From TrEMBL:
Residues 27-103 form the Acyl-CoA thioesterase-like N-terminal HotDog domain. It comes from the Bacteria. This is Thioesterase family protein. Gene3D superfamilies: Acyl-CoA thioesterase, double hotdog domain (2.40.160.210). It comes from Nonomuraea longispora. Residues 126-260 form the Acyl-CoA thioesterase-like C-terminal domain. It holds the Pfam family 4HBT_3C. InterPro entries: ACOT8-like_C (IPR049450), Acyl-CoA_hotdog (IPR042171), HotDog_dom_sf (IPR029069), Sec_Metab_Biosynth-Assoc (IPR052389), TesB_ACOT8-like_N (IPR049449).
Length: 263
């Protein structure tokens, strides 16, 4: 079991309840990363399902959970021949923190009938760069859990030179050697700095709603994460992410709505 597997594990209490322990190592200046929290919920929902994989998960972030004990409460809705549907709620100290719906199915790795090309051609890894190591007092614990190499124009905001477009692109893998799986993909879609940084905003940008589609089981190796937004307006922005595995295959898609960074 890797550190990430342990940080997202769900222990069955009964048919509908799973104990979890939210790991402070996935904090971003205090709050826990939304993709990490989604992975915790997805793992519990998959364990409670007769099918293997969480193929679509939609979560509404009612509150910001804190590190420590919590529970995932599963409410089965329907079990069909090829998919099962359930509600999954992350509860902490008796209060619902994240409400989500999860559809599970079993993916078999079939060859795609049609596959669109990536919307953007990434430069080679040698031409990409990491972010500077955060200062210990920043509370950016998440950075230590992963290796991320960015397409340089998408982190121009670090030098006060944002591109003016909501965008972020990078190569991604876990810091501890681990083949990517559906739960690593959940972290990957929300692991890059908010795309609104490239549009000139800064500060914590809390996610309100995040939906993840698992499209295929990823091959071993680096992932490529391509993120962009369509509208920044009235204190809100959207962010779409596309994740491709080391073979170039599309393995995950996500979309989220978030508040523009504050502070």
């Amino acid at each position: 079991m890797t550190k990430f597997d342990e940080a997202t594990q769900a222990i069955r209490v009964d048919d509908n309840t799973y104990d979890v322990c939210l790991d402070p190592g996935y904090g971003i200046g205090g709050p826990l990363n939304g993709g990490y929290l989604l992975a915790v919920i997805m793992r519990a929902a998959a364990q409670a399902s007769p099918f293997d994989h969480p193929v679509t998960t939609s979560a509404q972030f009612l509150k910001a959970p804190v590190p420590g004990p919590a529970q995932i409460v599963i409410e089965p809705l329907k079990v069909g021949r090829t998919a099962a549907f359930a509600r999954a709620t992350l509860v902490q100290d008796g209060v619902a923190q994240i409400a989500s719906s999860v559809t599970t199915a079993t993916l078999h790795g079939a060859e795609p009938v049609y596959a669109a090309e990536a919307p953007f051609a990434m430069p080679g890894m040698d031409d990409c760069v990491p972010l500077p190591h955060p200062k210990p007092e920043s509370g950016m614990m998440l950075n230590a859990q992963m290796e991320v190499l960015f397409d340089p124009p998408t982190i121009g905001w670090l030098k006060g030179e944002p591109s003016g477009r909501p965008e972020s692109r990078a190569y991604f893998r876990m810091a501890e050697p681990q083949d990517p799986d559906p739960y690593v993909l959940a972290l990957a879609v929300d692991a890059l700095p908010p795309v609104v940084f490239s549009a000139g905003a800064r500060g914590w940008a809390p996610t309100v709603d995040l939906t993840l589609h698992l499209r295929a089981l990823p091959a071993p190796g680096w992932l490529t994460v391509l993120c962009g937004g369509r509208l920044v307006s009235d204190g809100w922005f959207d962010e779409e992410a596309e994740v491709r595995d080391s073979t170039g295959r599309l393995v995950a898609q996500s979309r989220q709505l978030a508040r523009v960074g504050r502070g």
